[in-house]
Amino acid sequence: MTGHHHQHQQNPPADTDPAEFWDERYGQSDRIWSGRVNPVLAEVAGALPPGTALDLGCGEGGDAIWLARQGWRVTAVDVSAVALQRLAVEADRAGVADRITTVRRDLLAEGFPAGRFDLVSAQFFQSPLVLPREKVLPPAAEAVAPGGRLLVVEHGAPPPWSGLDADDPRFASPEEIMAAIDLDPDGWATERQGESRRTATHDGHTGKLVDHVVLVRRR
């Protein structure tokens, strides 16, 4: 679910099929997200030597393509075949298709792809569908190689134009995100836990957005 613009709507029914939901959502327009890399990811990954990366909920591939351009080998996972097809076209256009492997998968139903990665990135995993952090983030941490990092970035508050309540449970504090990952403190070092602010524009409205950031390194 990579992107700078999130259009919130009424939550769909709990039994909605995630693949159908996201394929339909992506099918509504030629592009949903901006195609730009998420700024916190660029800041964190830009300071690291390129290695292997797992991009969870990669969407149309703004992050995956940016990482590949920096020399990373990226496994890009999303539940939407439509999004992954767009990613493949963009990766080809950017000349980095050989460094990106796409995987269509419902992480909750089917689990994570095999392997360990130097960087596991979960950017804006909030969704109109129920996606419990405590079910997705511990396996995300499991997928981190020794010495590697898990980066979780979430909306810390509703965008001013969303009409959502600030107490909406989709907006967790950095402490709540950390609790959901449920790490053994002896095995991990916390490199960052707090908020990041940025300015964004949506349908002509400009506002300040708060992101909550957790960055942990496996010892």
In short:
The protein is α/β, with parallel strands linked by helices.
Structural summary, described in words:
Keywords: Methyltransferase, S-adenosyl-L-methionine, Transferase. The protein has about 220 residues and is of the alpha/beta class. It has a single domain, classed as 3-Layer(aba) Sandwich (Rossmann fold). The chain is about 30% helix and about 30% strand. Strand 1, helix 3 and strand 2 form a beta-alpha-beta unit. Helix 3 packs parallel to helix 4 and helix 6 crosses helix 7. The chain is globular and about 40 Å long. The protein starts with 17 loop residues before the first helix and ends with a strand.
Radius of gyration: 16 Å
Looking at the chains present, what oligomeric state does this protein adopt?
A: single chain
Largest sheet: 7 strands, mixed
Average pLDDT, rounded to a whole number, is 90
Query: Outline, from the CA principal axes?
Result: globular
The total strand number stands at 7
SSE order: HHEHEHEHEHEHEE
Class of secondary structure makeup: alpha/beta
CATH architecture: 3-Layer(aba) Sandwich
CATH topology: Rossmann fold
Our count of domains comes out at: 1
* Distance separating the two termini: 28 Å
Give descriptors for this structure:
single chain; 219 residues; alpha/beta; Rossmann fold; 7-stranded mixed β-sheet; 7 helices; 7 strands; S-adenosyl-L-methionine
What is the topological layout?
Elements: H1 18-27, H2 39-45, E1 52-56, H3 62-69, E2 73-78, H4 81-94, E3 100-104, H5 107-110, E4 117-123, H6 133-142, E5 144-155, H7 174-181, E6 188-202, E7 205-218
Parallel strand pairs: 1-2, 1-4, 2-3, 4-5
Antiparallel strand pairs: 5-7, 6-7
